[in-house]
Amino acid sequence: MMPMFFKILGIVALILLILIIVFGPNFKAKELEPNEEQEDSGNEECASDFDGNVSPKRILTDSEAYNLERIINNMPEGLLICPQVSFNAFINCKITKLRNQFNRKSVDYLIVDHDFNPLLVVEIDDDSHTSKKVRMRDLKRDEIAAAAGIPTLRITNKTPTESLENLIRTHIREAA
């Protein structure tokens, strides 16, 4: 039995040697799928997918920037304002189906206390908020924030600057 094993082993070794001689120069090892360490090491191929396809963009419209300055200058003391905050960053939801209705939406501004607890959503209603479809979308966003106990203050560029501090205080007080 043993001599037969060695004959078969010899034949297999001879076949492998012939394959290596014939195909050796053209043989390429299959590339492995990148693992997490390789992906984190700055894979140039991955980066090239983004080259020319992504660019920075301004996070505030002109109207939002104008109103941010007005709000900052008239904020009640002890509060902070955060622009362009995702609903998902300040509202928890136990039901995935409900969370999916708002998790990609953001608010123009979120007013928070010094512990970063959300107190008030501030939305800028410019000329793009006049259609019925947009107003319905706005109502839905207000409803989501209200369900979490966070009121929404909607202002326009025409809202008197001198009234902003009082509006912010009143909306926060009414929610408490």
Question: Descriptors for this entry?
Answer:
8 helices, Trna Endonuclease, Chain: A, domain 1, 176 residues, 2 domains, 4 strands, alpha+beta, four-stranded mixed beta sheet, elongated
Tell me the count of domains: 2
The CATH class assignment of the largest domain is Alpha Beta
Radius of gyration: 31 Å
CATH topology grouping of the largest domain = Trna Endonuclease, Chain: A, domain 1
Helix content: 40-55%
How are the strands ordered across the major sheet? 1-2-3-4
Uncertain residue segments: none
How many helices? The count is: 8
Round the mean pLDDT to the nearest integer and report it.
84
Structural overview:
This protein is of the alpha+beta class. It folds into two domains: 2-50, no CATH class; 62-175, 3-Layer(aba) Sandwich (Trna Endonuclease, Chain: A, domain 1), CATH 3.40.1350. It has helices at 2-23, 36-40, 44-50, 62-73, 87-90, 96-99, 132-147, 164-175, and strands spanning 80-86, 106-112, 118-124, 152-155. The chain has a four-stranded mixed sheet with strand order 1-2-3-4. The longest helix has 22 residues, at 2-23.
